[in-house]
Design brief:
It is built from seven helices and nine strands, in the order βαβαβααβαββββαβα. It has 253 residues and is an alpha/beta fold. Helix 4 packs across helix 5. The radius of gyration is 25 Å and the shape is elongated.
Length: 253
Amino acid sequence: MVSNIKILVILKQIPDSCEKDFYQDTGCLNDSDINVITEALDLRDSLGGTVTVMAIGPTESLSILKEAFTYGIDHGILLDDDSWHDTDIRGAGRVAAAAAVYTGPYDLIMFGRQAIDGDSIHMAAMTAGYLGMPLLPYSNGLFVMNHQIQAECIGDDQNEQISADLPAVVLSVSKRNGRYPSVQDILKTYNGTFKVRVIDGCELVLANQKKMVCRHRTYIPDISTQHKQIIFKEQDETVLAGCLETVLCQLGY
């Protein structure tokens, strides 16, 4: 039986403050984050160990880390560097993997379903690839024993039972949420007892870091290719009847 399991939960990067009107969850934990934190804490309570929560983003991301502390997590880490804020999903995965190695080791690295901003589900796969760890995708339930993890993963036709040796990465879609912030953890969070560790690019140095997003372009529809809508008036009934007759003839009626 595994004991004192070390779990890392990686949260989503929240949208910029100028986009708050478009995302109702901005500035707080969204449901998938809460669900995966709950699952990690349940594993910790049954096996012993620690739960560390990590977020990539600017200082504003401290708000979601503080909220995570109210659920009873053990440690919080913020990856805050200007060069990481506007990177794409591949760059974010590389930063998360490097930070996991730097602050770890961890037995289990967990992700929620997807982000509310980019709506991407590739972060877990990218991070697992950089770490060289097995990925258990779309997990709806976990069981850890004898340094192995078993998960019921949702498939297209039916659920699959998948197992892997630890350490491993899990993309969780579990919706169970039976935990709520406790008064004790809320007080500890906001009186300064819990501290967030902030790591920047000077501390976490990535060699040959490249931004994959090279250019942004505003989409402008080509009006010339759009179909025009024609409204026939009462006096155009003869014209309309002629058009219908022509179309029906072309169709062979």
